[in-house]
Amino acid sequence: MSERVCVGAIAGAFGVRGEIRLKSFTADPQDIASYTPLYTEDGAKSFTLSITRQINNGFSARLSGVNTKEDADSLRGVQLYAERSQLPSLPDDEFYHADLIGLTVLDTGGTELGRVKAVQNHGAGDLLEIQTTGSSATVLMPFSQAAVPTVDLATGRIIADPPEGLF
Protein backbone atom coordinates (compact mmCIF):
# COMPACT_ATOMS: atom_id res chain seq x y z
CA MET A 1 0.00 0.00 0.00
CA SER A 2 1.29 3.42 -0.90
CA GLU A 3 1.86 6.17 1.66
CA ARG A 4 -0.29 8.63 -0.28
CA VAL A 5 -3.61 8.34 -2.09
CA CYS A 6 -4.82 10.48 -4.99
CA VAL A 7 -7.80 12.54 -3.78
CA GLY A 8 -8.20 15.11 -6.55
CA ALA A 9 -6.89 16.88 -9.61
CA ILE A 10 -6.45 20.45 -10.77
CA ALA A 11 -8.42 21.20 -13.93
CA GLY A 12 -6.92 24.67 -14.51
CA ALA A 13 -7.42 28.26 -13.43
CA PHE A 14 -10.73 29.74 -12.29
CA GLY A 15 -10.78 33.49 -12.72
CA VAL A 16 -7.79 35.82 -12.65
CA ARG A 17 -6.89 35.85 -8.93
CA GLY A 18 -5.15 32.48 -8.63
CA GLU A 19 -8.12 30.26 -7.86
CA ILE A 20 -8.13 26.78 -9.37
CA ARG A 21 -10.78 24.44 -10.77
CA LEU A 22 -10.68 21.36 -8.57
CA LYS A 23 -11.99 17.86 -9.23
CA SER A 24 -12.44 15.89 -6.02
CA PHE A 25 -12.18 12.10 -6.01
CA THR A 26 -13.32 11.65 -2.40
CA ALA A 27 -16.63 9.96 -1.44
CA ASP A 28 -17.93 13.28 -0.09
CA PRO A 29 -16.35 15.76 -2.53
CA GLN A 30 -15.98 18.61 -0.01
CA ASP A 31 -13.96 16.38 2.35
CA ILE A 32 -10.88 16.94 0.19
CA ALA A 33 -10.27 20.21 2.06
CA SER A 34 -9.94 18.32 5.37
CA TYR A 35 -7.06 16.15 4.10
CA THR A 36 -4.51 18.97 3.75
CA PRO A 37 -1.66 19.31 3.19
CA LEU A 38 -2.05 17.89 -0.30
CA TYR A 39 0.99 16.85 -2.33
CA THR A 40 1.93 16.53 -5.98
CA GLU A 41 2.53 12.97 -7.19
CA ASP A 42 6.29 13.23 -6.72
CA GLY A 43 5.88 14.92 -3.33
CA ALA A 44 7.97 17.92 -4.44
CA LYS A 45 5.23 20.45 -3.66
CA SER A 46 2.64 20.59 -0.92
CA PHE A 47 -0.40 22.82 -0.60
CA THR A 48 -3.04 23.78 1.89
CA LEU A 49 -6.42 23.98 0.20
CA SER A 50 -9.60 25.90 0.89
CA ILE A 51 -12.73 25.52 -1.19
CA THR A 52 -14.25 28.86 -2.18
CA ARG A 53 -17.41 27.71 -3.99
CA GLN A 54 -19.04 24.91 -5.93
CA ILE A 55 -18.90 25.21 -9.73
CA ASN A 56 -19.89 22.95 -12.64
CA ASN A 57 -18.01 19.63 -12.40
CA GLY A 58 -16.21 20.49 -9.17
CA PHE A 59 -15.12 23.37 -7.00
CA SER A 60 -13.16 26.55 -7.20
CA ALA A 61 -10.47 26.59 -4.55
CA ARG A 62 -7.39 28.38 -3.32
CA LEU A 63 -4.04 26.67 -2.91
CA SER A 64 -1.26 28.08 -0.77
CA GLY A 65 1.42 29.72 -2.90
CA VAL A 66 -0.84 30.05 -5.96
CA ASN A 67 -1.61 33.74 -6.37
CA THR A 68 -2.03 34.39 -10.09
CA LYS A 69 -3.92 32.96 -13.02
CA GLU A 70 -0.58 31.94 -14.54
CA ASP A 71 0.37 30.02 -11.37
CA ALA A 72 -2.99 28.22 -11.46
CA ASP A 73 -2.73 27.47 -15.20
CA SER A 74 0.72 25.95 -14.73
CA LEU A 75 -0.81 23.36 -12.38
CA ARG A 76 -3.44 22.14 -14.87
CA GLY A 77 -3.56 18.32 -14.80
CA VAL A 78 -1.64 17.97 -11.53
CA GLN A 79 -3.05 15.26 -9.30
CA LEU A 80 -3.27 15.95 -5.57
CA TYR A 81 -2.38 13.31 -2.98
CA ALA A 82 -3.18 13.06 0.72
CA GLU A 83 -1.34 11.11 3.39
CA ARG A 84 -3.04 7.75 3.91
CA SER A 85 -3.02 8.35 7.68
CA GLN A 86 -5.34 11.36 7.21
CA LEU A 87 -7.97 9.40 5.30
CA PRO A 88 -10.83 7.68 7.11
CA SER A 89 -10.59 3.95 7.75
CA LEU A 90 -12.90 1.94 5.55
CA PRO A 91 -15.36 -0.84 6.31
CA ASP A 92 -14.26 -4.37 5.38
CA ASP A 93 -16.10 -4.34 2.04
CA GLU A 94 -14.67 -1.02 0.77
CA PHE A 95 -11.23 -0.30 -0.69
CA TYR A 96 -9.20 2.61 -1.92
CA HIS A 97 -8.59 2.31 -5.68
CA ALA A 98 -4.86 2.73 -5.09
CA ASP A 99 -4.83 -0.44 -2.97
CA LEU A 100 -6.36 -2.55 -5.75
CA ILE A 101 -3.91 -1.57 -8.49
CA GLY A 102 -1.25 -4.24 -8.96
CA LEU A 103 -3.13 -7.05 -7.22
CA THR A 104 -3.04 -10.49 -8.86
CA VAL A 105 -6.43 -11.69 -10.08
CA LEU A 106 -7.19 -15.43 -9.79
CA ASP A 107 -10.34 -17.25 -10.83
CA THR A 108 -12.24 -19.42 -8.34
CA GLY A 109 -10.19 -22.43 -9.47
CA GLY A 110 -6.87 -20.71 -8.70
CA THR A 111 -5.85 -19.95 -12.30
CA GLU A 112 -4.14 -16.58 -12.68
CA LEU A 113 -6.14 -14.25 -14.93
CA GLY A 114 -3.88 -11.20 -14.71
CA ARG A 115 -3.16 -8.09 -12.64
CA VAL A 116 -5.27 -5.04 -11.89
CA LYS A 117 -3.96 -2.23 -14.07
CA ALA A 118 -6.53 0.44 -13.12
CA VAL A 119 -9.90 1.01 -11.51
CA GLN A 120 -12.34 2.96 -13.65
CA ASN A 121 -15.80 4.34 -13.11
CA HIS A 122 -17.85 5.65 -16.00
CA GLY A 123 -20.97 6.29 -13.94
CA ALA A 124 -22.47 2.81 -13.67
CA GLY A 125 -20.14 1.40 -11.02
CA ASP A 126 -16.47 0.53 -10.66
CA LEU A 127 -14.69 -1.59 -13.25
CA LEU A 128 -11.37 -3.36 -12.77
CA GLU A 129 -9.10 -3.04 -15.78
CA ILE A 130 -7.16 -6.29 -15.75
CA GLN A 131 -4.04 -6.85 -17.83
CA THR A 132 -4.32 -10.50 -18.81
CA THR A 133 -1.47 -12.88 -18.03
CA GLY A 134 0.96 -13.32 -20.93
CA SER A 135 -0.62 -10.60 -23.06
CA SER A 136 -0.79 -6.85 -23.40
CA ALA A 137 -4.58 -7.02 -23.75
CA THR A 138 -6.79 -5.71 -20.98
CA VAL A 139 -10.27 -6.74 -19.88
CA LEU A 140 -12.82 -4.64 -17.97
CA MET A 141 -14.54 -6.63 -15.23
CA PRO A 142 -17.30 -5.31 -12.97
CA PHE A 143 -16.13 -4.71 -9.41
CA SER A 144 -19.19 -6.21 -7.76
CA GLN A 145 -19.72 -8.81 -5.04
CA ALA A 146 -20.87 -11.32 -7.69
CA ALA A 147 -17.81 -10.89 -9.94
CA VAL A 148 -15.26 -10.27 -7.18
CA PRO A 149 -16.25 -12.25 -4.07
CA THR A 150 -12.84 -11.91 -2.35
CA VAL A 151 -10.26 -9.13 -2.10
CA ASP A 152 -7.30 -10.05 0.08
CA LEU A 153 -4.99 -7.05 0.45
CA ALA A 154 -2.71 -8.91 2.87
CA THR A 155 -1.75 -11.53 0.26
CA GLY A 156 -2.08 -9.15 -2.70
CA ARG A 157 -4.74 -11.06 -4.59
CA ILE A 158 -8.30 -10.95 -5.78
CA ILE A 159 -10.45 -14.03 -6.29
CA ALA A 160 -12.79 -13.40 -9.21
CA ASP A 161 -15.79 -15.17 -10.68
CA PRO A 162 -15.95 -13.32 -14.01
CA PRO A 163 -19.02 -13.37 -16.21
CA GLU A 164 -19.07 -16.19 -18.79
CA GLY A 165 -16.85 -15.47 -21.82
CA LEU A 166 -15.06 -12.43 -20.33
CA PHE A 167 -11.60 -14.06 -20.34
Helix/strand class: mainly beta
> For this structure, what is the CATH class of the largest domain?
Mainly Beta
Provide the gyration radius in Å: 18 Å
CATH topology of the largest domain: Elongation Factor Tu (Ef-tu), domain 3
Structural domains: how many: 2
Which spans have pLDDT < 50 for at least 5 consecutive residues?
Answer: none
Number of helices: 2
> Strand arrangement, largest sheet?
11-10-9-8-13-12
> Biggest sheet, open or closed, and with what strands and sense?
6 strands, mixed
| Morphology | elongated
How big a fraction of the residues is strand? Answer: 35-45%
Q: Please give the CATH architecture of the largest domain.
A: Beta Barrel
Q: Provide the succession of SSEs.
A: EEEEEEHEHEEEEEE
CATH superfamily of the largest domain: RimM
* Overall pLDDT confidence: 91
Helix content: under 10%
Distance between the termini: 27 Å
Q: Using DSSP, what is the number of strands?
A: 13
